[in-house]
Every structure is written in structure tokens, then in C-alpha cells.
Amino acid sequence: MNKKYKLHLVFIAICLLMFMPYPAAAKPLYQTHVAQAKINDKTLQKSLKQVKKHKAITIIDNLSVPPFHKRVTLPETKKQSFCLVCHLPLPHRNDERRRTFMNMHSRYIACETCHFRPETTTMAYRWLAYDGIDAGNALSPRRAAKVTIDSNSPSARKHKAQFKKRVPLSPQPGARIAPFYKNIPVLLFKDTPFSQKIKKDWKDANENQRAEIKAKLHAPLNKEGPTCKKCHGKDETMLDLEILGASAAQLKKIQNNTIVRFFDRFKKTDERIRINKLLQ
Ligand code: HEC
Ligand code: HEC
Ligand code: HEC
Predict the structure, then answer these.
(1) Chain-centre distance of CA 47, in angstroms?
(2) For ligand 3, what atom is nearest to the CA of residue 258?
């Protein structure tokens, strides 16, 4: 093959590469599941009932009488969850016992970690930045996974340890533990074209159309979040806390959480959290 001919071939190859369509970026798994969702009549009717009852909640500030119990709001992040198109950042209201804890977790766990758990797919759980220059990208954990079980510390040290500032598991403010599938986040943010379209459609829709939108968006979701044990237990846990950066001490704390133990013991809805019971 002469040199000129070779150069021609290289030129043609470069041209082909330049004009080749980019491989389509993989869609987040949640979006794929929404697109594939088939809604039956019963689900649609139920959705219609919910939509009829649904009221967009606005938080009223600057009341003439300052509210006694003012709920703190979450610091706003650069990236926001798609779910916040309709839900509040602290969305849990129904279950009086669990709601505070579930809302607290929304600070460092993505909605989809608890509410999108398709049975047939194995997902990996990693830190995802919602804020800062990394917003939208996966983050490395605060520390490399290397766990040694610490020996029993003397009780005086233990006593002091409770007053130390707790180091959060999260590698940076606003980061959340989120599900990944094939190395891309499963979830959507509010600023994606899909989210923007849903936002507009929802605004313009009548009740029947809203019922359809609600049903489709929630078909792939789990109404019930995972039990506390699914993350705080030692067996059958869905999160690999070591990969997420937990130190031995943090791991122990998460797996030996007093409040979680309480939730395990008390199942009936009329049982109240009492300090004396909590400390058992
Ligand atoms: C377009 C509006 C909209 C979006 C976006 C949306 N929801 Fe909802 N969601 C609703 C409505 C309406 C209800 C009915 C209850 C109510 O009025 O709050 C609901 C109910 C729920 C429920 C209760 C169970 C059920 O199915 O009725 C859960 C859990 C839930 N949403 C989670 C999510 C999560 C997680 C996301 C993000 C992945 C999300 N929602 C996104 C409108 C929305
Ligand atoms: C740590 C797990 C966890 C996270 C994170 C979480 N949820 Fe939930 N969620 C639950 C559980 C558990 C329930 C069921 C509680 C109950 O029985 O009312 C629930 C119930 C709900 C409901 C039903 C209505 C209500 O008042 O309780 C909605 C709506 C909802 N979640 C939306 C969201 C949205 C939106 C996010 C993200 C901002 C989110 N959740 C994050 C665990 C979680
Ligand atoms: C999806 C996983 C997940 C579920 C489900 C879950 N937790 Fe947690 N929870 C965590 C993680 C991760 C942390 C550690 C956060 C940290 O240390 O920064 C945590 C921390 C906590 C803390 C300590 C918070 C603090 O500031 O010290 C309490 C209390 C707690 N969870 C209670 C509960 C209860 C009660 C339930 C069930 C109703 C529950 N959790 C369900 C993942 C979960």
C-alpha cells in the first residue's frame, strides 16, 4: 500500500468518525420504567381519587403570629429531585410516628433510594452530589472503605464520645445516597427536559389527565419505603455502608441505633415513643 493511499484511508476514517451519530445517552432507569408503565383501570380510578383530593401545599411565611413550631426547611441545592415538582422537600406527613425520621433522611438519602426498588434489577448505592461544582455527579466517599472492628473503649472515653460533634457519613453538604444502574444515576433531576415536560403537562392538565400522569409516574415506585432494618440491620442490608465511607465507629452506630430498635419492637400505631422505652 503506498503512503498516499494510506493517508486517504486515514482521512476517510476520521470523516466517518466525525459524522457518526453519537451513541444515544442511556436514559435514567426510572424514566425508562415510567415510559414502559402500563396502567389498568383500577389504578387509574384510584389515581383520579387522589388527584381530586390533592392540594398543592404552599408554605405560608410571614404570618401575623409567628408559628410556635416552625419546621426547618432543607437548604436548597443546585440540583433538585424531580419528585419536588409536586412534593415538598420534607414530603412525609401521613405516618405520625415515622414521618419525622423519614423527613430527616431526605436530607442525605434520595427519594428513589427508598421509593424506587424494582425487584428484578440490582442497583448500586453511591453518593450523588446535589450541590457544589460536582452537582449531578457521583462522589467518592469521605473515606476509603477499610473497616476494622474497634476494641471496647473504656467507659470514660465512651461517655465523652457522646458529646463530640457527629461526623456525617455524607462526603459534602447536600450529597445523597442514590441508586445507580450501569454506573449512571437511576433518578432524574428537576432540570431535565423530561421533568420540565411533566411540570408543564401537570400544570395544564385537567383532573383526568392528571390522574394518568400521577399513575404513570408512580407505577414503578414503591409506596412503602424499606424497613429501618434494610439499612440499619446487619443482615440483608441494601446499602454497603463501608463503600459509602462509614468508619468502624459509624458502622457500629448505624447498626446499633436506639431509635431503630424502638421501631423494631413497637409495631402498633397507637404506641408512643417514650424516653424510658427508648432507652431499653
Ligand atoms: C406530577 C406530580 C408528581 C410528581 C412529579 C411526583 N409525585 Fe408522588 N404523588 C403525586 C400525587 C398527586 C400523589 C397523591 C397523594 C397526594 O396528593 O400527595 C402522590 C403520591 C405519592 C406517594 C404515595 C403513594 C401513592 O402512590 O399514592 C409516594 C410514595 C410518592 N408520591 C412518591 C413520589 C416520588 C418518590 C416521586 C419522584 C420520583 C414522585 N412521587 C413524583 C404527584 C407527584
Ligand atoms: C429513608 C427512606 C425514605 C426516603 C429517603 C424518602 N421516603 Fe418517602 N416514605 C418512606 C416510608 C417508609 C414511607 C411510608 C410511611 C408511611 O407509612 O406513611 C414513605 C411515604 C411517602 C409518601 C406518602 C405520603 C406521606 O405523607 O407519608 C410520599 C408522598 C413520599 N414518601 C414521598 C417521598 C419523596 C418525594 C421523597 C424525597 C424527597 C421521599 N419520600 C424520601 C421512606 C422514605
Ligand atoms: C435507605 C436506608 C435507610 C433507611 C430505610 C433508614 N435509614 Fe436511618 N439512616 C440511614 C443512614 C445511611 C444513616 C446515617 C447518616 C449519617 O450518619 O450521616 C441513618 C441515620 C439514622 C439516624 C441517626 C441520625 C443522626 O443524626 O444521628 C436515626 C435515628 C435513624 N437513621 C433512624 C431510622 C429509622 C427509625 C428508620 C425506619 C423508620 C430508618 N432510619 C430507616 C439510612 C437509612
Answers:
(1) 23
(2) 29
State which ligand 2 atom lies nearest to the alpha carbon of 94.
26
Q: What is the pLDDT along the chain (280 residues), one digit of tens a residue?
A: 566 777 777 767 665 656 655 555 689 999 999 999 999 999 999 999 999 998 776 766 666 766 666 556 677 899 999 999 999 888 898 888 888 888 999 999 999 999 999 998 999 999 999 999 999 999 999 876 554 444 455 555 666 656 667 788 999 999 999 999 999 999 999 999 999 999 999 999 999 999 999 999 999 999 989 999 999 998 888 999 999 999 999 999 999 988 888 877 777 766 766 777 666 6
Ligand nearest to the CA of 232: 3
Q: Kindly report the number of other CB atoms within 10 A of residue 196's CB atom.
A: 13
Q: How far is the CA of 91 from the centre of ligand 1 (A)?
A: 9
Q: What ligand has the least distance to the C-alpha of 187?
A: 1
Give distance in angstroms: CA of 100 to centre of ligand 2. 10
Q: Do residues 48 and 211 touch, judged by C-beta distance below 8 A?
A: yes
Note the ligand closest to the C-alpha atom of 253: 3
Q: Report the separation in Å between the CA atom of 50 and the middle of ligand 2, taken as the mean of its atom positions.
A: 16
Length of the chain: 280
How far away, in angstroms, is 120 Cα from ligand 3 center? Answer: 25
Distances from the Cα of 235 to the Cα of 116, 232, 240, 265, angstroms: 21, 9, 11, 17
- From the number of C-beta atoms within 10 Å of its C-beta (0-12, 13-18, 19+), residue 78 rates as middle
Nearest to 77 by CA among 8, 171, 10, 176: 176
